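Let us work through a complete example step by step.
Step 1: write down the sequence.
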Amino acid sequence: MPLSIKVTPVSQSFKVFVDETLSPKARSDKIADFARRQIRAADEINKRAFGAVPPKKVTVNGREDEFLAHVPPDQGIIIAEYRLVEDVLAWIMMTLRQRSPVVSGEYQKGHRLFADDVEVADPAHPPMASQYTFFNLVPYARRLEVGKTKSGRDFLISVPNRIYARTADDAKAKFGNVAKIRSGFASTPSSYKLKYDQPSRSFTRGFRRTLARQRPDRVAGSVVSVPAIYVTIG
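Step 2: predict the structure and record it as tokens.
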């Protein structure tokens, strides 16, 4: 009977066949040795990609067994799962802060991380989740991302705008092999609501044009969506 070995996140799977004339212990030893070599190879791949070997959990038939001391000789599953989410999320948070304008410091300190819609108290140690989301909850976060002045220039001067969009693009280029990363806009429970109707405008080559049609998302009471980065591991 074959024994399966799966190594993540490089998504390599192996079926190992061992000479059945060997003793049970000898078969177990050969399977464990093969699994260790594959895990070491995955360690090196991750070390080159991230600068260090990420934390991992090794299980044998669902039971944690870091040293592969209880590998069955004939059947079972060995899985090595690497915990890469901390590296991805830490890089995104660091980059958002580095790219933030610093005036009052509120925007730079306003970046928040949510795990499945629940705010993470300690971003350095996020819980397991199906999706992670970065928001900035200051009322003017959207304006800093895509806002224009009356003259049509970007609202930001000290740093380039599209802070969230650029960071998501760079994170995708860096971590795209282990995570799905995208930017967008989203509403949150504390999102700012418009006090008055806002005219819809467009800018072409520095010229501002007020559109006759009122956009439904710009009427008084509408929730102003904030820039967001979405991260899904796996």
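Step 3: interpret the result. The CA atoms of residues 142 and 226 lie 5 Å apart.
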